[in-house]
UniProtKB/TrEMBL annotation:
<protein>
    <submittedName>
        <fullName>Transcriptional repressor</fullName>
    </submittedName>
</protein>
<dbReference type="InterPro" id="IPR036388">
    <property type="entry name" value="WH-like_DNA-bd_sf"/>
</dbReference>
<keyword id="KW-0804">Transcription</keyword>
<keyword id="KW-0479">Metal-binding</keyword>
<keyword id="KW-0238">DNA-binding</keyword>
<dbReference type="GO" id="GO:0045892">
    <property type="term" value="P:negative regulation of DNA-templated transcription"/>
</dbReference>
<dbReference type="Pfam" id="PF01475">
    <property type="entry name" value="FUR"/>
</dbReference>
<keyword id="KW-0678">Repressor</keyword>
<dbReference type="GO" id="GO:0000976">
    <property type="term" value="F:transcription cis-regulatory region binding"/>
</dbReference>
<keyword id="KW-0805">Transcription regulation</keyword>
<feature type="binding site">
    <location>
        <position position="135"/>
    </location>
    <ligand>
        <name>Zn(2+)</name>
    </ligand>
</feature>
<dbReference type="InterPro" id="IPR036390">
    <property type="entry name" value="WH_DNA-bd_sf"/>
</dbReference>
<comment type="similarity">
    <text>Belongs to the Fur family.</text>
</comment>
<dbReference type="GO" id="GO:1900376">
    <property type="term" value="P:regulation of secondary metabolite biosynthetic process"/>
</dbReference>
<dbReference type="GO" id="GO:0003700">
    <property type="term" value="F:DNA-binding transcription factor activity"/>
</dbReference>
<feature type="binding site">
    <location>
        <position position="138"/>
    </location>
    <ligand>
        <name>Zn(2+)</name>
    </ligand>
</feature>
<dbReference type="GO" id="GO:0008270">
    <property type="term" value="F:zinc ion binding"/>
</dbReference>
Amino acid sequence: MQSYSFTTQEVLDTLSEGGVKPSAQRMAILRFLMENRVHPTVDEIFKALQPENPTLSRTTVYNTLRLLTEAEIIRCIETGVNGARWDYSQHDHAHFLCTECGRVTDVAFTMPSSLPLPESGYQVKSADVIFRGTCPLCAG
């Protein structure tokens, strides 16, 4: 897995570009997502950050994730199993959900230039593609 590292200024700039007022907890949550591209759940984020942020609550994590999603800084991945996952990525891609272990991984994917929509007038702003199956670790 590729390792990522971001400076405090880069985290601040990302929040600023999204119009989000920085706080220590928002910065910690965003930095975690920027540096850990494992598509974590709310509980995984909370458990990872709580030891160094003892005043952090699950409610703050939920609210921050909602705020960052609305600002289009992160994406929510609704897998239908084990709760929502969260993704920070600056490039378009799809996801692969292993139906055995629940792991979510990025998959290179280019959205087609035209989509078959039933009627005219639709204006697509985003699309989420999730492939489901068995990952190499579970298949092997």
